[in-house]
Amino acid sequence: MKNLYGTQFNISHIEPATHIYGPGRRFGIWLQGCSLACNGCWNKEMWSFKAIELLEREELLKQILAETNINGITILGGEPLQQAENTLWLIQKIKQSTSLTIMLYTGYTKPELQLQKNWDMLETNVDLLVTGRYEEELRNPNNQWFGSENQELIYPTKSRIKQRSKPLNEVEIIIEQTGEVRVLGYPSDLSQC
Is residue 3 part of a domain? Predict the structure, then answer.
C-alpha cells in the first residue's frame, strides 16, 4: 500500500509504558488506518485513514529513545503494515540502534507478508509477530498477547524474546491526569472497551 502520509505516521495513540502487549514494560504505538475491517474488532475507531495525529517518523524515534526503563516497543493498530514504509523504517532503526525488543501485531498472515515482500525484513528484525485477522467467533480472552485462536505468535529464529505467551487474561486500566480512563487488553466483557 502506498504511503499516504510521506515520512509521517498517522498515530491513533501512544502509550509510553504498557505492560500487557508483550513481555516487560513496552512503548506501545497504535497506528491509525485499517482496511481489513475484522468482524468484531474493538478498535473500529482506528479503521479510518483520516489523519488523527501526524508525527514525523524521526520524531517518533526520538520519543522512543528518550523513554527510560522500557524493554521494547509494540506496534499495533489499525494495521501497522498499511503504513509499511514508515513501520519498516522504524523497526530497522530500533533494531540497529538499541537493545529494545520489537513486537508487531498485523492482521496479515505469513503467506500474505511473503507476497507483499515484507516477510524477510520482519523475520530479521522483529522479535515477536502476532499474525492473522481477528476472528470474533474464535475469540479467547485468556490468550496472552493475542485475541483469537486463529492468530499465530511467531518468534523468528533470531528473536531476543525468551518469554513465551501463556494462558492469561491481562487488562490494563490507565487513569490520566484529566480523569480519562482507558482500558487496554482483552477484557472478558467487550462492553468494557
Answer: no
C-alpha cell at 119: 516477510
Q: How confident is the model at residue 183 (pLDDT cuts 50, 70, 90)?
A: confident
Full residue range of the structural domain in which residue 66 is found: 8-192
- Give residue-wise pLDDT tens across range 4-45: 899 999 999 999 999 989 999 999 999 999 999 999 888 899
The reported pTM is 0.88
32-36, 50-54, 111-115, 168-172: lowest mean pLDDT where?
Answer: 168-172
**Which sign, positive or negative, has the C-alpha torsion 129, 135, 138, 140?**
positive
- Strand 53-56 to strand 152-154: parallel, antiparallel, or no bridges (unpaired)? unpaired
Site of grid cell 487474561? 169
The bridge status of strand 26-31 relative to strand 72-77 is: parallel
Residue 1 is placed in which grid cell? Answer: 500500500
Within 8 A by CB and 6+ apart from 93, the residues are 61
71-to-19, 21, 57, 127 alpha-carbon distances in Å:
10, 11, 20, 12
Domain count across the chain: 1
d(CA 11, CA 90): 13
In a domain, 188, yes or no: yes
